[in-house]
Amino acid sequence: MAANILIVEDEESILELIAINLHQSGFNPMRALNAEYADKLIQEAIPDLIILDWMLPGMNGIEFAKRLRSNSSTKKIPIIMLTAKSDEENKIVGLESGADDYLTKPFSPRELVARIKAVLRRKSPELIDDPIKISNLHLDPSTHRVESNGATIKIGPTEFKLLHFFMKNPDRVFSRNHILDKVWGNQSEIDDRTVDVHIKRLRDVLTNNGHDKLVQTVRGMGYRFSENQEN
Amino acid sequence: MAANILIVEDEESILELIAINLHQSGFNPMRALNAEYADKLIQEAIPDLIILDWMLPGMNGIEFAKRLRSNSSTKKIPIIMLTAKSDEENKIVGLESGADDYLTKPFSPRELVARIKAVLRRKSPELIDDPIKISNLHLDPSTHRVESNGATIKIGPTEFKLLHFFMKNPDRVFSRNHILDKVWGNQSEIDDRTVDVHIKRLRDVLTNNGHDKLVQTVRGMGYRFSENQEN
DNA sequence: AAAATTCTGTCATAAAAATGTCATAAAAAT
DNA sequence: ATTTTTATGACATTTTTATGACAGAATTTT
Hints:
The structure is a homodimer. Chain A is of the alpha/beta class. Chain A has 2 domains: 4-127, Rossmann fold (3-Layer(aba) Sandwich); 132-225, Winged helix-like DNA-binding domain superfamily/Winged helix DNA-binding domain (Arc Repressor Mutant, subunit A), CATH 1.10.10. Chain A is 40% helix and 21% strand. Chain A has 8 helices and 12 strands. Chain A has a 5-stranded parallel sheet with strand order 2-1-3-4-5, sandwiched between helices. Chain A has a 4-stranded antiparallel sheet with strand order 6-7-8-9, covered by helices on one side. In chain A, a hairpin with a 3-residue loop joins strand 11 and strand 12. The longest helix of chain A is centred in the middle third of the chain and has 15 residues, at 109-123. At the A-B interface, strand 2 and helix 2 of A face helix 1 and helix 5 of B. The first copy, chain A, binds a DNA duplex through helix 8.
């Protein structure tokens, strides 16, 4: 399940930049422009991780982090601090105040996503996409690689996503529209039948590597990924 | 089929957070920021479950729940209450006012999804595609597979739907028109007698897998699926 | 920046599977 | 024995899926 991540950042354009990047990386961003609003949100729903700007209007990030740590229902939420100051001292203060990681502005969104994954892996491994192995096929989301036995399989971007989706949900049947939604992203105006073509491409790739019949057609329904007998 | 779930929550970020999490869990979220709009949505289409914030602007959640309970067309919709107040008293009032479950803020979206599934399983099992097992026959809607003992049975789309319908309603007699309605969908202009043919096809499939006499003819009435003796 | 390569989505056509109807046989009821 | 209802096999048609080709987009290499 996708992790819900609260971003607390007073600079709206940065907030949005982060949110969009997180969304593209498969997270659910929640936005707060200040500590008060963040508080309000947290009182209603508990995020899986918080990205916290060091400098906030009103209450600064450190203070906010301390408050979170002192409340039993928020104590365990991992925090990643963002700061403009790069000196070591602040870093130490930040980490002491309870942050799990610390990122200096300007940072690359890629780096942030990597840090988030690292923290989540440590704190809530169930929220992270671990490597999956089914029937000699080994898919590793973090390296974006698929192996059959030891050999790396060459596979296109869409086919990778498709395979990843299937391997995360083996044996279940999905309609073309469901697949479009999950693999292409919802508001895609792509034709149903395009799925067929990519299924074909994925099948070709797998067949060339000795994996027949993993992707199965369920007539009138959609497709299924399964190492079990067809039908 | 994906359950339609109406979320009534005045805090927009939270509403959206819940909606996204429900969507990712395969539900169909309907959004309402207040009781009035919720009313409007309910009049257009009855949801399968309602998530209701205790505190709403204008009319509070309890009141709204009571209203739903007093109207015959909405009486049976399961309700899950969200509340900021954690004391027992409110919980009791909430449950007495007709809520089926109760979640205290701050809640984790994952917990909410789990509760929804639990309530649906209790109140509208037909919305949850659980596997059905009757007399060695095992039908799993999510994988779209039918097994007899461990062996997968090859079965066509219409026969699958027919079998699914029968297994969901064992031991009851259905007229051909009733079956047409439920399996083919209502506005079908298909001949009554076509049902006979598909019954035959289903019987063939089952017989080939050692299941005699599960589909029984009730002369002048229609058909019945039962593991008990005929007549 | 240009060229080369890879990737995408769509379409047309082929191939496969499923469907509904009908005629006739079989069974049950009267 | 006759009538009514159901079972069954055949089959033409329709529906659904597979596949190859292609042009434009996107990405990588040069």
